[in-house]
């Protein structure tokens, strides 16, 4: 039984994440007129406006090149604007517009609506336990990767 739980935990977690993302995307498109990727950018910039695209990508856990078409589309739709970084002209900083600021409450309501449905029948205690377990798994995996960094560097150098 233990082996079965360990083998299926990652897949079950991944499926839950995918279904939540699909539900967020559906509700946001239907009720706000934006998609989940755009909402994540807006929420990130609402916390800290005027950041480099790399910082946004890191904040929403995607690669910087993947973010470029998202920001391009958002800029065309008047949701963000790029401004050259005066300290480093090679970089652009991304800022919210009045239009995207006006969507923040609707985004929050959409997320709350999806969470309410998704968390139906789950106690607050179970949600807290789930958070603690996932934070522990994340920390353990991160610690493992950090401990293996020297090994990875040696392997990378050997391939060159």
TrEMBL record:
<dbReference type="Pfam" id="PF01047">
    <property type="entry name" value="MarR"/>
</dbReference>
<feature type="domain" description="HTH marR-type">
    <location>
        <begin position="6"/>
        <end position="139"/>
    </location>
</feature>
<dbReference type="GO" id="GO:0003700">
    <property type="term" value="F:DNA-binding transcription factor activity"/>
</dbReference>
<protein>
    <submittedName>
        <fullName>Transcriptional regulator</fullName>
    </submittedName>
</protein>
<dbReference type="InterPro" id="IPR036390">
    <property type="entry name" value="WH_DNA-bd_sf"/>
</dbReference>
<keyword id="KW-0804">Transcription</keyword>
<dbReference type="GO" id="GO:0003677">
    <property type="term" value="F:DNA binding"/>
</dbReference>
<keyword id="KW-0238">DNA-binding</keyword>
<dbReference type="InterPro" id="IPR000835">
    <property type="entry name" value="HTH_MarR-typ"/>
</dbReference>
<dbReference type="InterPro" id="IPR036388">
    <property type="entry name" value="WH-like_DNA-bd_sf"/>
</dbReference>
<keyword id="KW-0805">Transcription regulation</keyword>
């Amino acid at each position: 039984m233990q082996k079965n739980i360990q083998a299926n935990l990652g897949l079950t977690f991944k499926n839950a994440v995918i279904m939540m993302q699909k539900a967020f995307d559906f509700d946001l498109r239907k009720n706000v007129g934006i998609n989940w990727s755009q909402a994540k950018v807006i929420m990130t910039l609402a916390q800290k406006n005027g950041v480099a695209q790399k910082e946004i990508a890191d904040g929403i856990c995607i690669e910087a090149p993947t973010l470029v078409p998202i920001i391009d589309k958002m800029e065309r739709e008047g949701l963000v604007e790029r401004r050259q970084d005066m300290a480093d002209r090679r970089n652009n900083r991304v800022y919210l517009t009045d239009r995207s600021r006006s969507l923040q409450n609707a985004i929050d309501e959409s997320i709350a609506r999806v969470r309410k449905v998704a968390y139906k029948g789950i106690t607050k205690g179970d949600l807290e336990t789930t958070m603690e377990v996932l934070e522990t798994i994340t920390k353990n995996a991160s610690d493992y990767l950090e401990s293996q960094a020297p090994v990875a560097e040696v392997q990378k150098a050997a391939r060159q």
